[in-house]
Amino acid sequence: MWAELQGAVGIITGGAGAIGSETAAVFAEHGVTVAIADIVDPSPVVARINAADGRALGVQADMNDPDAVDRMVADVLEFSGGRIDFLINFAGLFNDVPRVPFWEIDLAMWDSVVESNVRTAFLATRAVSAPMRAAGHGRIVHVSSNTAAFGMGNFLHYTSAKAALVGMARSMARELGPFGIAVNAVGPGLVHTPAVVAAQEQKYLDQVVNGQCLHQPIVQRDIVDAVAFLVSPAARMVTGQTLLVNGGATMGSF
Ligand SMILES: NC(=O)c1ccc[n+]([C@@H]2O[C@H](COP(=O)([O-])OP(=O)(O)OC[C@H]3O[C@@H](n4cnc5c(N)ncnc54)[C@H](O)[C@@H]3O)[C@@H](O)[C@H]2O)c1
Question: Which residue from 3, 159, 181, 211 lies 20 to 30 Å from 201 (Cα-Cα)?
Fold first, then answer.
């Protein structure tokens, strides 16, 4: 899988975040040219990659802004000599999203969560689909969440947004398939990023781990390997699917 990805060019939105930055770094270690697009300055991730002799372009931009998204794709095409093989949509508010009953979600909160997770993926995929359609190949991955599968309480804005990405992957897979482009989603369980570990009580973290079939914490690298599979030739005929990377947490009760 990793050997076949060598020389590929990919865009990682939300690439300055915990899972996105790990994805960018591991892909770069394996010879992938990565473009890191984030509303937060991605230069520390670019510096980390360059220090390890990897090739990266950082683009600080709001993926909710269609013009900024189009400019980002143009910059990547210029940097890569006209090639984009894959796009992974990690961008989205998650850590600071208030967990409240849905009747306490005001419109501003709803819009910021849904737009940062759904509109960003729509805009980035729309922009990248033009060069991919012209090239006749491409791989897209939307980063959903297993909360969409089990319907997490007090998190309706987030679960609704993440469920939308599952439907978006399926519809895009249908429309882009004839152009040789595959579109899938991943649904991580609770990933023990530094922000998650800092924000959650140990009791809650243990409870989630014990609710999985596999009683080990999910870490960033688990998501990196899943998205790598989905953008690699190993997943050639996989499209319209959602791969849950959650240790079997949503298998239902026995
Ligand atoms: N950590 C988890 O447990 C977990 C579980 C399931 C799904 N996810 C999803 O995985 C993705 C990454 O999560 P993370 O833990 O690394 O979170 P994170 O907050 O570290 O990363 C998200 C990144 O998205 C960026 N972003 C937000 N809005 C943006 C916009 N409009 N334009 C450009 N960039 C924008 C942020 O700046 C941030 O760098 C998120 O979509 C999250 O919902 C995370």
Answer: 159
